[in-house]
Write a structure and sequence with these properties.
Blueprint: E1 6-7, H1 10-18, E2 23-25, E3 32-36, H2 40-50, E4 59-61, H3 77-86, E5 91-96, H4 103-106, E6 111-115, H5 120-129, E7 132-133, H6 148-155, E8 165-167, E9 179-182, E10 188-192, H7 198-204, E11 209-211, E12 232-235, H8 238-250, E13 255-258, E14 262-263, E15 266-267, H9 269-285, E16 290-294, H10 302-313
Parallel strand pairs: 1-8, 2-8, 4-6, 5-9, 10-11, 12-16, 13-16
Antiparallel strand pairs: 2-3, 3-7, 4-7, 5-6, 9-10, 14-15
Helix pairs in contact: 1-5
Bound molecules: threonylcarbamoyladenylate (TXA) and magnesium ion.
Length: 317
């Protein structure tokens, strides 16, 4: 069935946002559930629609890096470098917020997370509707959506036609969320590994980069997040994987195995990232009983994949 919520036109999506609606939009990472930053009632609905605590702050999405100064108090030199190099793209920068940023989106913190996405539809919507907040368009704690159908699976009953919508831009190219970098500390810190690799950022900043420490710096750092509704078993090697599959199958369990395709001796991490969330969701809809996943090496996109797989495997609260 084709949902009445589905839109294919960025102009219509922007129109609904300007009128105070909530619209899921495609980005190159995952689909985001957008509301215009100057519509507090729509932002409040985002928290209700997702079932997300209002203490979990939202990322502000801009059409153009030139808009950044309006929303932040200062742009430290390394933040300026990161923005010039990584925007538009799967990169989110945490900066000290200006008075223009509503409390509602920061959970009362003095920082704001900002991203300029690269997806042409997202950019067209943001250029037309103005800056928007957009958390991933899933119910809180569930696997992030990488297709419009995933968004509808989670949110159809919670969105209102004709005020809201889901802009269909096909499957997301990157497939895991943006890399979040805290630029308010003396050295930049990675709060969430994502679509841009740690190594690239390390090189760009000439080593001025630290791993974030301490719990709860960003809500995506909660141990159980991005979780499918079935157990996930993680394996470091193919030998471990083969053993885990044999053990679970011998107990009569319906197993889904996931891991990177190996192309000419090299693991295809971009493909693994693109497909991961679809596979986790498919395991649920197919009624599989256990997911057995091969962890990729901790390099490039492998950092983000390992992070999301660990969170998918963590015990539910
Ligand atoms: O790729 C992405 O980043 C996607 C697309 C839609 O842009 N968005 C996304 O948003 O992943 P969300 O809300 O699912 O995750 C944003 C993360 C949360 O872990 C949140 O706690 C953290 O960013 N965050 C946002 N503002 C923050 C702030 N001021 N301080 C610390 N963490 C913040
Ligand atoms: Mg999320």
């Amino acid at each position: 069935m084709i949902s009445d919520l589905i839109l294919t036109d960025a102009t219509e999506a922007a129109h609904r946002l300007r009128a105070g609606g909530v619209v899921a939009i495609p980005t190159e990472t995952v689909y985001g559930l957008a509301a215009a930053v100057d519509h507090p009632a729509a932002i409040a609905r985002i928290f209700r629609i997702k079932g997300r605590p209002t203490t979990h702050p939202l990322i502000l999405h801009l059409a153009d890096p030139a808009q950044l100064p309006e929303w932040v108090l200062e742009i430290p030199p390394d933040a300026a470098r990161l923005a010039a190099w990584g925007w538009p793209g799967p990169l989110t920068l945490l900066l000290r917020r200006s008075a223009r940023v509503p409390d509602l989106i920061t959970g009362g913190r003095d920082t704001v997370a900002v991203r300029v996405p690269a997806h042409p539809l997202a950019r067209a919507v943001l250029a037309d509707a103005g800056p928007c907040v957009a958390p991933s368009a899933n119910t809180f704690g569930h696997v992030s959506p990488t297709t419009a159908a995933h968004v509808l699976d989670d949110l159809t009953a919670r969105l209102d036609e004709p005020h809201d919508g889901v802009l269909d831009g096909g499957p997301c190219e990157v497939g895991v969320e943006s890399t979040i970098i805290d630029c308010t500390t003396p050295r930049a810190q990675i709060l969430r590994p994502g679509g841009i690799s740690t190594e690239e950022i390390h090189t760009l900043l000439e080593g001025r980069l630290e791993q974030a420490s301490g719990p709860d710096r960003a809500s995506g750092m909660l141990p159980s997040h991005y979780a499918p509704g079935i157990p996930v078993v993680l394996c470091e090697t193919t030998d471990e994987l083969d053993l885990a599959v044999a053990t679970h199958q011998s107990r009569g369990l319906d197993v889904m195995v996931i891991g990177p395709h190996v192309v000419q001796g090299t693991a295809d991490l971009a493909g693994y990232a693109r497909d991961l969330y679809s596979l986790l969701r498919r395991a649920e809809t197919e009624g599989r009983q256990v997911i057995i996943a091969l962890l990729p090496p901790a390099e490039g996109l492998g950092h983000a994949l390992r992070d999301r797989l660990r969170k998918a495997a963590a015990p539910r609260p």
